[in-house]
Amino acid sequence: MSSSNTVPAYRVLAQGRQYHLGVMSALVTACIWASWLISVKMGATSSLTMFDLSMMRYGMPALIFAYFTYQARAQIRKVPLHILGGISLGAGVPFFYLASQGMHFAPVSHAGLLIPGTFPLFVTGIAVLIYKEPLSSQRFMGLAAIAIGILTLLAESFFAGSGQVLTGDLYFLGASFCWALFTVSLRVSGLPPLAATGLLGLVSCSLLLLLFAFGLLDSGVFGANQTLDMSLIGTQFLIQGIMVGLVTGFSYGFAIRQIGAENTAAIGSLTPVIASVAAYPILAETLSINGVLSMSLICFGVLCASGVKLNKIWFFKK
Predict the structure, then answer these.
(1) Which of 287-290's residues contact partners 24+ apart within 8 Å by CB, and which partners?
(2) What digits encode the pLDDT tens for the residues 173-203?
(3) Nearby residues of 307 by Cβ (< 8 Å), 6 or more positions away
(4) What does pTM read for this prediction?
């Protein structure tokens, strides 16, 4: 009897070379996530607005992957509306708004810890509460470590009297929940990565243009009397449109399909480490002792909460 007869299709993982390719895709995604966090922080302190950055982020996938979305239209129609909403909005405009707003108040290191670092907490909560998946003792220990790491980071901001940083941290937690919703919805939908990415881009661009048309969003690029920094725009377009919009649009979906959301989350725990290390020379941001402690707890928690064993992640897996 095949495993697909006893296990839901979205829980069946790839084997051999395909599994290893999934691991590589997850590693590439973690590195690009870290660069995206830094680019959003740089964009938040420039003349570029949330509309400009998000149109760069979603515009390229909407154009490039629209064909794949059209090709998969019959499969998309079979996906329940709430799952499509989780894909289109979870990693769409609400997520980008919360992440970019948080960057106005808190450092990149906090974003790296609270967005990709804590979304496994929300992923597991959704899986347990909605899909009735069991909660093992290892996963419970991991979730507890993540929760303690979050509280440690929030307590530092609270007791230091830094209300702005605490506000940014709460925005990041909201963005993390949105990303968890996207991750679970993408996994359950079974849609091809490129089709799902095209759908995300099309819905997000439509919503952004609608908000812009009604004057609810403004632009730093198309605004009057703006002096444009073409170097900044080019850098942001490379990271937002090409690397995040196109490359991770495929690599993240591919990793989830090949090695599962749990394994992808475990490898994604490297993101806050990469982001914090890169933020030091680029943005002159340093991580406090409490920040290092929070990072250690959250990374350890993600590995445990993902429910995977280390010898099933790396390349010597058979």
Answers:
(1) 287/109, 288/156, 290/152, 290/153, 290/155, 290/156
(2) 999 999 888 988 888 898 988 899 999 999 9
(3) 136, 138, 139, 262
(4) 0.81
Q: What share of the chain is helix, strand, coil (3-state, %, to 5)?
A: 75, 0, 25
Distance between the two ends of the chain, CA-based, in angstroms? 21
Tell me the range of 10-24, 174-188, 298-312 where mean pLDDT is highest. 174-188
DSSP track, 165-181: HHHHHHHHHHHHHHHHH
Which helix (H) or strand (E) segment holds residue 79: the answer is: none
Name residues whose C-beta falls within 8 Å of residue 234's C-beta, 6 or more positions apart in sequence.
none
The two tokens of residue 20 are 């290893």
* Rounded CA Rg of the chain: 19
H/E element holding 211? helix 193-213
Cβ partners under 8 Å of residue 112, min gap 6: 34, 37, 271, 272, 273, 274, 275, 276, 279
Helices (H) and strands (E) in the chain, counts: 15, 0
Q: What span, in angstroms and rounded, lies between the C-alpha atoms of 118 and 4? A: 30
Q: Give CA separation, 178 vs 59, 157, 175, in Å.
A: 20, 23, 5
Q: How far apart are CA 234 and CA 17, in angstroms?
A: 36
Residue located via tokens 């702005």: 164
Q: Model confidence over 64-109: pLDDT tens digits?
A: 999 999 999 999 999 999 999 999 999 999 999 999 999 989 888 8
CA distance 305 to 144: 9
Specify whether the CB–CB gap between 34 and 191 falls below 8 A: no
Cα 102 from Cα 171, distance rounded (Å): 5
Angle between helices 137-159 and 163-189 in degrees, nearest 10: 150
